[in-house]
Design brief:
By secondary structure, the protein is mainly beta. 6% of the residues lie in helices and 35% in strands. It is globular and about 45 Å long. It starts with a helix and ends with a strand. The N terminus is likely disordered.
Amino acid sequence: MRRRCLLLLLALLCEPGRGREPGPGAVTCGSVLKLLNTRHNVRLHSHEVKYGSGSGQQSVTGVEASDDANSYWRIRGKNDDTCQRGTPVKCGQAIRLTHVNTGKNLHTHHFPSPLSNNQEVSAFGDDGEGDDLDIWTVQCSGTHWEREDAVRFKHIGTDVFLSITGEQYGHPIRGQREVHGMPSPNHHNYWMAMEGVFIKPSMDPGKHDEL
């Protein structure tokens, strides 16, 4: 009996097309979440503090605190028609990450970052509307972005990866880590979905998971 159950399980796992459907832990369009850099154990963060060099735009950093409200980001599509609320995000899909508290988008461009001299990452735009340099692709190994998976974010316009290598700021954001773009994939640019409100893949906009 045990052997029959094992054979049935193997047959189900090997069935063509099996595994393409998103699991219950899929990250979906419209969800609001925090992103953890798995190498340095800090969350992607922004605030109304501008860079004193480079672009002078709103700074993006990494923070150790898990309960900081300025670390929430909303998942949106390249445009709103390509990422319907509750739709699972596919690996390779183009998205925007909009900072909830300031309405600016995760952005990068050809300015040097202030500490490491990599590529500056900033928050840009107003009320979620910026420009083409706000667009990133989700790089993951399966079909959909799952919450338990470490993923990378590759910038479409400049081909860099969203990264942290550990440099720390002084006053007025003492202890926060520099976030920047790096040209190659490595262990500094893996991110994982953490706390948030995850919209379920359903036609009912009222359904969501809170973590």
